Amino acid sequence: xxxxxxxxxxxxxxxxxxxxxxEATLARFSRDWGGLVHARPGAVVRPSCAADVAAVLAFAxxxxxxxxxxxxxxxxxxxxxxxxxxxxxxGGLARVHPxxxxxxxxxxxxxxxxxxxSALARGxxxxxxxxxxxxxxxxxxxxxxxxxxxxxxxxxxxxxVELEVVTGRGEIVRCSPERDRDLFDAVRAGSGQCGxxxxxxxxxxxxARSARRRKLYYRDVTAFLAxxxxxxxEERFDHVEGRVLREEGAWLYRLDATSYYLLPxxxxxxxxxxDLSFEASLTETAEYSYGxxxxxxxxxxxxxxxxxxxxxxxPWLTVFLPDAEVADVVGQALDTVDxxxxxxxxxxxxxxxxxxxxxxxxxxxxxxxxxxxxxxLLTVADPxxxxxxxxxxxxxxxxxxxxxxxxxxxxxxxxxxxxxxxxTRHVGDAGSAWEAARRRYDPAGVLAAAHSW
Length: 453
Ligand SMILES: Cc1cc2nc3c(=O)[nH]c(=O)nc-3n(C[C@H](O)[C@H](O)[C@H](O)COP(=O)(O)OP(=O)(O)OC[C@H]3O[C@@H](n4cnc5c(N)ncnc54)[C@H](O)[C@@H]3O)c2cc1C
Description:
By secondary structure, the protein is an alpha+beta fold. The protein has helices at about 5-10, 25-30, 50-65, 110-120, 135-140, 150-155, 180-185, 220-235, 270-275, 290-295, 300-305, 325-335, 385-405, 425, 430-440, 445-450, and strands at about 20, 45, 65-70, 85-90, 95, 105, 125, 160-165, 170-175, 195-205, 205, 210-220, 240-245, 250-260, 285-290, 315-320, 345-350, 370-380, 410. It has 3 domains: about 5-90, Uridine Diphospho-n-acetylenolpyruvylglucosamine Reductase, domain 2; about 95-205 and about 435-440, Uridine Diphospho-n-acetylenolpyruvylglucosamine Reductase, domain 3 (2-Layer Sandwich), CATH 3.30.465.10; about 210-420, 3-Layer(aba) Sandwich (Vanillyl-alcohol Oxidase, Chain A, domain 3). About 30% of the residues lie in helices and about 25% in strands. It is globular and about 70 Å long.
């Protein structure tokens, strides 16, 4: 009997389970956004409630069937795929519930776009959002969820008040800092290896009305890094990111510094830009509504879908670097890549003391104020050149080694060949708590079985 038929028969859920194993569905769930790994599941379940997820996990645990979790499938190296196992498509659990006070309650498959729209209708917003709002709540909470506001407010996982989780054993548990803390800490940034987040309660802050983004350009990397340190240390802006660009054979560095405001008079431009050494003649400034600023990737996404680049392979690598090593490691990394027009290189500071999620591993800064750096090599590859693809993955593996040797860490979801990352080493001193949680909540290892870094 097929896996789908066994699942449909044995799962004791409240209603019929939506299980598919038709060719079109299996093909759709055989690849992720990275487009580098192909793994064909035996069946895809689209749950409509947490009890459906619990039924699938109980079945999987009894039968030793691997389970992969899929939010919107934006992983880069098959993290949301399984060969022969069950994919749980959380797209069926995508409601944002009317929240009360300064909180929003969202099902795990809801996109951050829907969450933000719902919060903004009440004049509120999540303090930290990813650059792209099409990602699912469960997907970013399972890696951390970082953005330009993280230097002030930490990761998205730090703003979670409570989670509803279905464990690997098929139990539905509500966990929080006060209740089943071990599970709460094991699923936030835990890459879906201990349980399935089915619902999240997320804290909100008052939303601004408008945003002013300045793109400040530098030709000198030392000045660029120094100014980023200053603006983050002094919290001059609400949102800070940075890019490394290639222009006419030379590197150009861009500090994206955004202020949120209610009234234009709230922003003292001179004070904000004082003592920064950007190339003034190149500066670009744009005004947005706050909502449009949050969803600023939407136009780019449409364009990339139209020109087909969205569907090309994405061997993305994101790592975190200690301050003392950032210039050297980034310099070495940039020597090894050809940055084309379609590629994005991110480089911006975070504050480790604002990030409290145990499994979101960052380098240890020398002082509380010292930043750590997010460095993302987000390249797009030619789908018809397997040798180039293999080289890019090799380069990622070499860079990851360089980064870890320099005291840095990797961000799950990256495109790293299997075996590059030792999870136990990655989680460091959070390892024993994580191991204990895994033994307790997924003793059959059905969630870990499908997982790759
Ligand atoms: C265009 C783009 C922009 C991005 N921008 C940012 C950014 O600004 N900031 C940032 O931090 N990251 C960013 N990322 C990375 C992104 O946060 C991760 O890849 C994230 O996991 C993707 O979410 P998803 O819903 O697509 O997850 P999927 O790809 O579907 O799943 C990825 C992983 O999450 C786990 N998972 C998914 N849902 C659940 C769940 N409900 N419970 C438990 N585990 C689950 C899966 O097991 C898997 O390991 C970006 C990625 C892309 C492609």
